[in-house]
Amino acid sequence: METATSKTAAATYDPKNICELLRRDGYVHLRKWVDPADVRSAVRAINFEIGEGISREEIELMRVNTISFGTDRLRHSQPITNLLYKTRAFKLVQELYGAENIFLPDYYVQIALRFPQDVGNDIISYLPWHLDNVQPGGVKGFGLIVGVFLNDTLQPDSGNFTVFPGGHRTLEAHFRNTAYSMSLYRHKYGKIIVPNIDIGDQHQILANAGDIVICHHQMPHRAAPNISPHIRMAVFFRIYHKHLPFEHPVDCNLRGDESLVDADVPSLCDCSKRSVPTDIGTMLINPDLSIPWIRGSKCSGSFQFWESTRRFITDSINQSGTLLDIGCANGFLLASLCYWLEQKSLSVIPYGIECDPSVLQCRRLFPNQYELGHFIQIDLETFLSAPTHEAPAFPERFDFIYWNVWVENYDLEAEIEQNILCKLYQMVSSKGKLLLGLYGTKPQNDEKLEKIKRVMFRRFPYVNNSHVQVLSSLNHSHNLLSIDAINQNN
């Protein structure tokens, strides 16, 4: 069913009012915010490129997909970017995010053209709603969509940008339920799978040229069919947040069917307030708040599962000191360990390396240490090739090094993988420990334990079973191999 009128059509330039509307409705429609001269300039630039040539295939793709029209030169040209930078919208975005938090990657601009259906084809057929940036290898690192309309769409079914007011909150409630937290993904062949839930009535935005719409990133939306005589022209800017990097892939888990899952639980970027450091203690006593971070740590289980399979790691840490997490992801495991160890009157100084940009989220959990260079994006092999060069803020040795030895990534058969294990052991301080997490099945863990011990005993003859301890999680589904560091100078 179509809603009769826009709830936000009369929004005024008042950041507090707009915040409330974004929370309530998920979008705000702001009328006549772009200078007509800037609109004409953008339309001219787009029409010039259309005149340079556009294939039938591109037109069809733009009817059913969200691909952007135009070359990189056009998308980043002044007539297009002025639609954001020369309007009050950019000032508003700065106030919503905090100017210091805005990050605009190369592909933040989408020129969205919706071509008319053929004459005589007045069939009204709606495409499924979708969320942006659900794709293999990427998730929603952005928090706001800013759309600028370049021509009038004052009648329904003119290619109108279509939203579902309040749908972002419906989806948030859905994704907060751990049973459904992975119910949104794009199949490896491109098909988007969306939750089969009622997200409410649609609203086609009836816009004048120069109007702006600002949407929460989790607002379900689509383009209406276009039975008008005109191409619908709009430009969309996706505003990214420095704390949620645009290539942030950690909400994605590779499923058995090789589909990438976007957990998207709940909105990780609350654009209605400035970003502040996240309090780990608050999250660990409120499972709902911790779920997005658990997903970001590449764990698909519940909060209870997370705690039962991670907290036991602290049983192997018997002194204060430095702790390096290999593959730290968003830092949530490190933050959890720090919090649990504080309850045992132990204090650790955290460090982390991660091969993907999820490490940038560590800024929210460890703002001071992040600025000191304790967290870097680097792959393990490169890091070990020259640790002091690649990570100048890191100490030469650590009191504790934790490495989750994924079954599918490291089988320790190849010499290069055995060398990685040995180099890590040599980076542990005297009286410290190398901690190896084993999160496979019991047969897999048992096999990996024996391989590790064989390698260690062969490479370091002074290491024997008395220096090795195997710990199990509360539910006995996961193991931790703790190896004491001794005689490191031998």
UniProtKB/TrEMBL annotation:
<dbReference type="Pfam" id="PF05721">
    <property type="entry name" value="PhyH"/>
</dbReference>
<dbReference type="GO" id="GO:0016491">
    <property type="term" value="F:oxidoreductase activity"/>
</dbReference>
<dbReference type="InterPro" id="IPR029063">
    <property type="entry name" value="SAM-dependent_MTases_sf"/>
</dbReference>
<keyword id="KW-0479">Metal-binding</keyword>
<protein>
    <recommendedName>
        <fullName>Fe2OG dioxygenase domain-containing protein</fullName>
    </recommendedName>
</protein>
<dbReference type="InterPro" id="IPR005123">
    <property type="entry name" value="Oxoglu/Fe-dep_dioxygenase_dom"/>
</dbReference>
<keyword id="KW-0560">Oxidoreductase</keyword>
<keyword id="KW-0408">Iron</keyword>
<dbReference type="GO" id="GO:0046872">
    <property type="term" value="F:metal ion binding"/>
</dbReference>
<feature type="domain" description="Fe2OG dioxygenase">
    <location>
        <begin position="105"/>
        <end position="241"/>
    </location>
</feature>
<dbReference type="InterPro" id="IPR008775">
    <property type="entry name" value="Phytyl_CoA_dOase-like"/>
</dbReference>
<comment type="similarity">
    <text>Belongs to the iron/ascorbate-dependent oxidoreductase family.</text>
</comment>
